[in-house]
Design a protein that fits this description.
The longest helix is centred in the middle third of the chain and has 133 residues, at about 45-180. By secondary structure, the chain is mainly alpha-helical. The protein is rod-shaped and about 195 Å long. Among the domains are: about 5-90; about 155-200, no CATH class. The protein contains 3 helices and no strands. Helix 2 runs antiparallel to helix 3.
């Protein structure tokens, strides 16, 4: 706010200079007889009253300025300064809030990215474990089926060999009966056929 005494200090030199100019002009007019016919305000006879009314007008102007105009201007200036400061504070607050919101958003994005990566790793690990378990189960089942198939093949082979041996024994007995006559010993024929089959299997 502009103080009245500072305003007075600003205008006082100008008023004093004007008074000196008016007084000097009045003295010059009084010394010059031709000047008496000039402007009435330069008449030395009216000079004291002019100076008096100049002081009165200056005092009234000073009072009006100091009591009405200057406080009004000072209040307006203070209100404007307060509004500008309030706007600056609001802008600073909004800037801080925007920075905080941006930091929170970036943190949320980072947390979400970390959670997504952890979920992807967990899903990949779970899928890998399930795949390994499934492969192990399939391998075991296939191994069991292969073992069972080998067992069945071995049993079928044994059964086929038994049938072949009995047929070979019968054929050998029939051939011996036709060639030599009589019936050979069954145990001996069976042993010979078995030895022949073993030799052929080797």
């Amino acid at each position: 706010m502009v103080k009245p005494h500072s305003l007075f200090a600003r205008f006082a030199p100008a008023v004093a200079a004007a008074s000196v100019v008016v007084f000097t002009s009045a003295v010059a007019s009084a010394a010059d007889p031709v000047a008496k016919k000039g402007m009435p305000q330069f008449d030395p006879m009216t000079m004291p009253s002019q100076i008096f009314w100049l002081i009165v007008c200056f005092a009234i102007l000073y009072l009006v300025m100091s009591k009405v105009i200057v406080p009004t201007l000072g209040g307006t200036i203070e209100a404007r300064a307060a509004k500008i400061q309030g706007d600056l504070d609001a802008a600073a607050k909004a800037r801080d809030e925007a920075k905080a919101a941006l930091a929170h958003y970036e943190k949320s994005i980072a947390d979400a990215r970390a959670e997504a990566q952890a979920a992807n790793r967990a899903a990949a690990d779970a899928a890998s474990a399930a795949t390994n378990a499934r492969l192990t189960e399939v391998g075991q089942r296939i191994g069991g089926e292969i073992a069972a198939a080998e067992t069945r093949i071995a049993e079928a082979r044994q059964a086929a060999m038994g049938n072949v041996r009995s047929m070979a024994v019968e054929v050998a007995q029939a051939a011996y009966a036709k060639l030599v006559g009589g019936q050979p010993e069954a145990a001996r024929v069976d042993a010979l056929v078995g030895a022949a089959l073993q030799g052929g299997r080797r």
